[in-house]
Known about the structure:
- The protein is an alpha+beta fold.
- Helices cover 40% and strands 25% of the residues.
- The chain has a single domain (2-258), classed as Alpha-Beta Plaits.
- The protein has an eight-stranded antiparallel beta barrel.
Amino acid sequence: MKRRQFLTASLATSALTLAGESFAQPAPNSAREFYQIRRYSLVSGPQLKLTENYFAQALIPALTRMGLGPVGAMRVDFGPETPTYYLIIPGASVETLATLELKLADDQSFLEAAAPFWNATAAAPAFERVEISLLEAFAGWPKLTPPSTAATKGKRIFQLRTYESPSNRDHQRKVEMFHSGEFGFFTKSGCQPVFFGDTLIGPRMPNLTYMLTFPDSAALDAGWNAFRNDPDWKKLQADPRFAFEAIVSNITNLTLSPLDCSQI
C-alpha cells in the first residue's frame, strides 16, 4: 500500500511539473484529509435564508472552533433538484467528521445560535432532507486548495463532479488515471482543482468526487475546451490500461456559486 501511494504521488508530482502549472497545489507527501460533503435539499422561500443564517452564524463558527476548515458553503446554480445547498467540510480524521453531530450537540454556543434551524417545527421545517457522504482525499492531491479569490470574497464559481464506475476495478482504474497525469492537465488548461476525494461512505458507490474552480462561466468553458484538446490528455485517454471499457458509467456535474459565508 505504501509503495502504491508513493508511486501515485510521484506520478502526480511529475505531471504537474511537466504541465508547467501556475496554481498552488498541496505537496503530494502531505497527510491526506477527509471530507464530509453535505447536501441540503430545500424549498424556495424562508428555508433558504434560514439555512444560510444557520451556516453563517452557527455551523461554520462551530466547525472553526473545532479546528475544521476551510469550509465550503455553496448553492447549486445548474443541476437537478434546485434549490440545493452544499457544504464541504475538511478534517484530519474520519472519527471527527463521523461524530460531528454528537460534538455539535455538546457545544452550547452552537446550540444557542442554531436554535431557529435545529428547533424548526414540522409545520415549517428548516430543510427537506440532508444527505451526507464521507470521502478520503487522493494521495496525489491530499489537501483542499481554495482559490486565491476566496480570501477576498472575489468572483468565482465551482464545478462539483462525481464519477460513478460499473465495478470496483473500474473505479480503481479511474482513480489511477487521475494520478497518471490528469492533475497536471487540469491546471495546464486553466481548470483549478480544489479537491479530489474517493467516496468511503455515501450513495451510488463506487464513485469519486472532485471540485474545480474558475473565475466565471467563460473561463469554465475555455478551460474545458483546452483540457479536451490537450494532446497529452488524448494520449492518456487512449491508453489501453484505461480504454479497455467504459470505466465511468455515470457523471453528475453541478455548477455552484459560493454563499457569502463560504471560506472556499
